[in-house]
Amino acid sequence: MPELPEVEALAGFLGERLTGRVVERVYPVSVQVLKTYDPPLTSLEGRTLTGARRLGKFLDIAADDGTHLVVHLARTGWLRWSDRLPDAPPRPGKGPLALRLRLAQPSGSGFDLTEAGTHKRLAVYCVRDPADVPGIARLGPDPLDAAFTVDVFAGLLAGERRQIKGVLRDQSVIAGVGNAYSDEVLHAARMSPFKIAATLDEAAVGALYEALRGTLRDAVERSRGLVAGELKAEKKSGLRVHGRTGEPCPVCGDTVREVSYRDSSLQYCPTCQTDGRPLADRRLSRLLK
């Protein structure tokens, strides 16, 4: 799933290519991805695009009349840029193509939104205000915003009786962090993913805050300037524990382990994060005694 660093890079990539360009056509190839109907997608046609930005894990593309095309790529969605899209309109079908946006100039350029797999969660909204998108309206603070201080972070964690892994992934608490970067942040902070958030003392909160900001900033810098097609590979190459079950931890050399759930998994290093003790691999895992 694209998270804060990849969506930030996508926004920068699209901003350079879309700003000042006129939309020729928008093709909703898969109607189920479209979550709004007023204004219609056709209202974007003929409009000049004014920029692209990231809101949490949402991508917001703005037009000169105040209309916004908002995209959430979900787990398996992606954006594919082309300097020359096919001339023939796309046909609805069972393939991965969900939506195509074609620019008037350079003629034929634009992008496709695609989604692999059988569970279709890619979501597209055409709205007058991004806050009209329910997921955006619920977003917590952005962890890279200057206003996101360690005191703000401490306030968010206070009273949270949930495991810290789940708190970091909750978009209503902190915007933009998903499964992969929560693993990376916790590894950098040398913290168990099952630590209860409200039990963290001042030193632990400070260490987690620095790990959160540092991990995301580093990932954003690695992704900056890359074309859309290179972002997935860059994300994978920069991860130290997530998706690396069975490999040696790059910090201590211990074997990276995994806890699997029904539809996701987390990875961690026992030596770095749990005092050498493995976590039980079940949904309500606790440290093995």
TrEMBL record:
Key words, A-Z: DNA damage, DNA repair, DNA-binding, Glycosidase, Hydrolase, Lyase, Metal-binding, Multifunctional enzyme, Zinc, Zinc-finger
Keyword hit for DNA repair: yes
Positions of the FPG-type domain: 240-274
Names of the cofactor(s): Zn(2+)
Xref: InterPro entries: FPG_cat, FPG_N, H2TH_FPG, Ribosomal_uS13-like_H2TH, Znf_DNA_glyclase/AP_lyase, Znf_FPG/IleRS
CDD domains: BaFpgNei_N_1
Reactions catalysed: Hydrolysis of DNA containing ring-opened 7-methylguanine residues, releasing 2,6-diamino-4-hydroxy-5-(N-methyl)formamidopyrimidine
TM regions (residue ranges): none
Domain Formamidopyrimidine-DNA glycosylase catalytic intervals: 2-94
Signal peptide: none
Family under the similarity heading: Belongs to the FPG family.
The protein's name in its UniProt record: Fpg/Nei family DNA glycosylase
Species assigned in the record: Streptantibioticus rubrisoli
Higher taxonomy: Bacteria, Bacillati, Actinomycetota, Actinomycetes, Kitasatosporales
